[in-house]
Amino acid sequence: EDGYDLWLRYMRADAATSARIAAHGQVIAAPGDSATMQAARNELLRGITGLTGATPTLSNIVAPGALWLATPRTAPALPLKLEGLGQEGYAIRSIRVEGKPVTLIAAQGEMGLLHGAFHWLRLAQSGAALDAMDIRSAPRIGLRLLNHWDNLDGTVERGYSGSSIWDWWRLPDWKGPRYADYARANASIGINGTVLNNVNAKSDSLTAPYIAKAAALADVFRPYGIKVYLSVKWTAPMELDGLKTADPLDPTVAAWWKAKADEIYKAIPDFGGFLVKANSEGQPGPQDYKRTHADGANMLAAAMKPHGGIVMWRAFVYAHDNPDDRAKQAYADFKPLDGQFADNVIVQVKNGAIDFQPREPFHPLFGAMSRTPLMMEFQITKEYLGQSTHLTYLGPLFEETLKSDTFAKGKGSTVAKVIDGSLDGHRLTGIAGVANIGTDRDWSGSIFNQADWYAFGRMAWNPDLTADAVAREWTALTFTPDKAVVEPVVAMMMGSREAAVDYMTPLGLAHVMDTGHHYGPGPWVSELARPEWNPVYYHKADATGIGFDRTKSGSNAIAQYAPPLAKRFADPRTTPERDLLWFHHLPWGYRLASGETLWDGMVHRYDRGVAYVAGMRATWEGLRPMVDGERFAQTQTFLAIQQREAQWWRDASIAYFQSIARRPLPAGAASPPESLEAYKMRKFPYAPGNP
Ligand code: BDP
After folding, report:
1. What pLDDT digit, counting tens, does each position of 469-501 carry?
2. How many Cβ atoms from other residues are within 10 Å of residue 534's Cβ?
3. Cis previous bond, 172, omega within 30
4. Which DSSP string do the residues of 181-235 spell out, in sequence order?
5. ipTM
6. What 3 state SS string does 476-506 have?
7. What superfamily would CATH give domain 15-137?
8. Which ligand 1 atom is the nearest neighbour of the CA of 384?
9. Which of 158, 513, 528 gets mutated to test ligand 1 (max ligand atoms within 8 A of its CB)?
10. Predicted TM-score (pTM) of this structure
């Protein structure tokens, strides 16, 4: 097995499971000729045939043991209520039709049936009971999107899984089989849209030939309910058609975008909308014309409005000439604009205020803009979490962020409630994940990275799902439902992100990765042009201590959080230890809750992270008899790489910080084997994903 089939493997099940599946899926009654119905039927056929070895019959008559897929249109007298399920939700129920047992998958529309079919297959594949079913499921968040940082030349910014899967050169003519498999995989976990190109966009994406290419992809994705979106470059009207300005209040600019929107919708009638990175990291934007982000977003929104399209405006902004704490800048720019955005604009906010670190407190904009719909941006590709080879399951990171309490409207105002719209009554809701997908056979650069794609989709559908539950599902589908595999694999996964935090950025440290490629440690880097590009800006280690003071005596970023949180973060004693150095600059001798000094605690955490990886290797070795050779070997090799690199992270970080703290290592901790200079000398000119 090379991982191509992801979690949709449908391998032959054991005899008992196979018999159970056959008993409930020997007939597929799923009338309808649409491409979506065909997709649902084909998936059930493929799944049941694979799992049981017997091909079910297709019939329009509801026979005993049938899987019956019905909407109010095909079956006006359905025995269950579909209210509240929307177009994508579904119900699955075991019923009797003329005394014969039948499994009914019902939905208001065909897309719901497709999702229901995938749910049933997930249960079948994971060996669950298939009788006495009574399930209702509908997505809590409206837009559940992947963001591809794919460039038109086939490279992927922060991509560690090969090249872009979009073969722009041979599109629109050649539509390889991967596109439909991509859509199937996404639909199976509830993703319903994809932004095809990098947020650092080229204007060319908006030319007629590229619109035709995007339209070809949209045609393949449509039956699976996946809409296409594009990232746009702010100055496209100037670059493509020679306009003199890109000022959003200039009527010729607005007219250009309106015409462009009309052109796109002619080719892609269900086009989703635009994603915009403006006035960020050198990208042009409305501020270049002394206009606000709202001015820019609203102008684009007006062009999309007649077609039902939306604008996703990113809040990932920080300016080179702004001396203030980078973590404060998005809030400073956007909070004053609350209430000024058009109703088809949604502001896309990264989970934390800096940049996809192994750990960040939740972004202070969540909960702070009650009159503006905010969508979450997670990074599935692991730019800062070990890239392709480290096993660092992101489920716990997603869960931790979604469950964070903003206290915006009192206790229980979680980030999940901000983005599902329930806290402030928004109907436009969304969540995006920066994709980890590429041309590698296994799509994601490693088998275990597939779990991050899977978890993103499942938690986007239901932000209350736990990382543990999702890991269990994924493992059962990806390997086997056998507990002897599921238990140890889930245990490995669940602690893996914390281990990366420990060996890279313990106790709230952040952004200490090496320059540009962000691969490996570089806490000593201090000479880059912009202060906030340098790791020393983030950890502020000096002879007296370490950490970024974001309290009143420092940048006062804590004031951007609701008062109960600001109060908690003001005092190191009430700040969660995991975020300690994010909010405070503390003496090396500061006492942690355990009683040990900050310095000793840091060293212990580095060591704990490395030890965890060694533990994962041992666990994996024990699974050798139960995992197929190819996937076993890849994971085994990658864990070895991870252990080597975790050790490197630990040694280099300790060598550097010890040179500043000038303290002995705690008893039992080994000295780094190389000199600090040797760690600094390591260079990686061809590290992948670096723009
Ligand atoms: C950072 C990446 C950079 C992206 C940027 C963004 O290092 O490549 O362009 O975020 O999100 O994480 O715009």
Report:
1. 999 999 999 999 999 999 999 999 999 999 999
2. 20
3. yes
4. HHHHHHHHTT--EEE-S-SS--GGGGSHHHHHHHHHHHHHHGGGTPEEEEEE-TT
5. 0.99
6. HHHCCCCHHHHHHHHHHHHHHHHHHHHHHCH
7. Chitobiase/beta-hexosaminidase domain 2-like (3.30.379.10)
8. 12
9. 158
10. 0.98
